[in-house]
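#structure-requests
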Amino acid sequence: MTDPLAINTTEAALDEAEALTTLPGGGLLPVNALKPRYVRIARHISNILAPATISVPMILLVAFYRASSLASALAYAGLTLFFLSIGPFTYILIGVRLGKLSDVDVSKRSERVGPFIFGLISVCLGWFALVLTHGPAPLISTVIVTAISGLIMLVITLWWKISLHASSLGAAATILTVLYGSVMLPTFALLVLVSWSRVVLRRHTLAQVIAGSLLSIALSALILKLFGW
């Protein structure tokens, strides 16, 4: 029986390698340039809609929701982003640079525990900072959603490579829709798009992106409802 983890690991290694092919006349061309256009498009979509990237507009929109002033919204958004995105992503970048992690997507499931634990600690510190400074309730609720979802994803990741891209975008789309209403429903189209890209790039199976999406949507909606949103 084929091991899905082995397939994902092999694909990740091949995709990230700086392989070259020889052109007629002796020139060299990166193998990536020979990939079908839809694969290159999928790679761009995956990068643009990565968890760290989408966290910026999502946190800003949550911070602006019924904000008392622009300055306070920006300050609390910056504080939240530091603990939810900047800190954890810096940890990953350092890990890649030191050779401890294979890539910024942490494509190998076996490498994900460390970044998950660091991320959860950072999120908890972010929650503490927001509570201590009497931060906006929507941001505090968002941090709680992130912490609980992250913990559940960590447990699942020990056995199965559930999609964090799909999970992050599913949570973001749900939170924004709960706060702003139906005007944010089109954000779920981005969830479909990023899920497609992850399957095309062979980073995840269809089941893994569907599970990540549905789990984050259900958790986000339930937690926000419990907090009165």
